[in-house]
Amino acid sequence: MISTTRFPALATGLALLGTLGASAQSAAPASLTVQVNKPGAAVNKNMYGLFFEDINFAADGGLYPELVKNKSFEIDARLIGWKALQGAANLDTYAVRNEQPISTSNSHYVRLTTRNGASGEAGIENEGFRGMGVKAGGECTLSFYARRGAGSINGVTASLVGEKGEDLGQVALTGFTNEWKQYTAVLKSSSTHNKAHLKLVLNGTGTVDLDVVSLFPKDTWNKRPNGLRTDLVQLLKDMKPGFLRFPGGCIVEGRTLSERYQWKETIGDVAARLPMINRWNMEFKHRSTPDYYQSFGLGFFEYFQLSEDIGAEPLPILNVGMACQFNSGELAPMGTASTKGGPNAPAAAPHDHAADDPSLDVFIQDALDLIEFANGPASSPWGARRAAMGHPAPFNLKMLGIGNEQWGPQYLERYEPFAKAVKAKYPQIEIVSSAGPSPDGDLFDKASKRLGELKAEYVDEHYYAKADWFRQNVGRYDNYARTGPKIFAGEYAAQSGAIGSQDNKNTWDCAISEAAFMTGLERNADVVGMASYAPLFAHVDAWQWTPDMIWFDNLNSYGSPSYYVQKMYALNKGTKVLPVTMPAGAKNGTDNLFASAVADEPTGEVVMKLVNYSTSPRPVSINLAGAKGLGKTGRAQTMASADLQTQNSLTEPKKLAPQESTFAVKGATLTYTLAPNSFTVLRVPAKK
């Protein structure tokens, strides 16, 4: 006998089945009609995709699996991520220096000098990104540059250390000289730890300089030396996303223009990429993260490569000559002279990668150069840079975003010459423009009107709102002009509390409300061409914003209920919209019943999405009007929970995930009972 006390989820499921059976016998079915014989607009093959931004430790400490924080000592002189062993009791010198560095692009290193007569270990330790995740038997490539000074130091012993000081493995590297030289070894962990550290102990007495200290797992996606974290990439690939938007987000803008994301600084030799403080490090006082930075080990080449790996169209977003309007609002001048943003603009960032005071022409040229980097032949200047990184073939870039979430006349006056320049040289590139951070209001209306006049191809609309907003606005695009720009729902997520609140949770209430809203996106596929949830990733110990689609620690990861909703849409997007008539001609969403349908022409199936936002089971009768040659067995995927506050977690990663089943099909009228608080996808085989 199975104990439902030991397995509460099973008890809930058995009770739900009993309720469904009783309801199916008593409640009158809601009648819907799907016009199978009247297919409408085509669904964009890239309809559902991914939005990546380096927030919540999404890159360093997340998707990019380098284990050493501040490996090149370039962040500042405070040695972020590092500490001296035994409180520097055995070191006379422990400081960042810049005399005779490895290169001008990597101008800082750490100098260590042992103290004469001291006993015990002399050296340094790196904490990683909230620790280092290592697996039993897992191998990492350890590398660093070293240069010996005065004294007899001949090498370093590198050790992995567990949370309680356990010795997990060590290796000695020797042969130091008075010239910079790289040393490498394999460091293997004897056991699994989520928060290990790396310890470097000097062998001998004297002075040594160290730089570019890296500990990189060998188990990366496609086993690449500078590859990505396998479990996180797999979660993305499993969605079969249509596009990957990168690198953000407000990361694109920067708090000031000197802090903006500059793609040219993120390609080439990884060791030569200058890191920069992450603009999210101190944005939220309740989640202050002063050690958050961007190493750019995950740069534009790697983003393009990731897009290719997961079968997604790359969608890079570039700065339009505007810093974040929530911060300084600094503007690049329209001409070739320069002006700064105003008297209240913050001080410049520690690393200003660009020429001082760039004009808009600099930003436009960056865009043209990026297209050449992505698509140009290996014989072109920027195509040659791509080929030198190991990808001679073009990446086949088709889309480009101009600006992120900007608004007002300053954006529109910069967008117009920017778009004209791109189109003049690369007319085949589709351009994504911005309608600002809000889904309504005067600024939104003016931007939408002007972008329509400019014949923009895509307008990016964003909405973060309470869960009920998504259900109430399921008809948002029903009355949009059919001849205007396509809509890119580029950032959206239901909030369980207030927008930006640290108390927001990835609840089923949020996810099912998003599922309801997405029936409206699907029904209006002639207007909505792309959609993506945001943000994508969050480290459980180092997040700044919630809710998020995928959560992880240093070893494990899981998809939230919103992840599975997005995945169900992406895997069942179909090819043509099928009109759906709701019960008694009501609007979609009446009585909390939401529906949409598509034809999947390659498989010959009718695909229906149904949301029952109700505490009661809901029988439905679906007339598949004009359907021919229906099969006898359909397939169902269902997410359901009686508790709208249900969440997934590291300990219960699939507490709420799609459950698959089959159902009988008898003629052109299908009967099915929707579970309480459920999102269901039904696939019915039909004649091709």
Automatic annotation (TrEMBL):
Keyword Hydrolase tagged: yes
Alpha-L-arabinofuranosidase C-terminal domain: residues covered: 490-678
Region (Disordered): 334-354
Catalytic activity as recorded in UniProt: Hydrolysis of terminal non-reducing alpha-L-arabinofuranoside residues in alpha-L-arabinosides
Enzyme class: hydrolase
Family the UniProt entry places it in: Belongs to the glycosyl hydrolase 51 family.
Family annotation (PANTHER family): ALPHA-L-ARABINOFURANOSIDASE 1
Protein name from the UniProt record: non-reducing end alpha-L-arabinofuranosidase
Organism of this sequence: Hymenobacter bucti
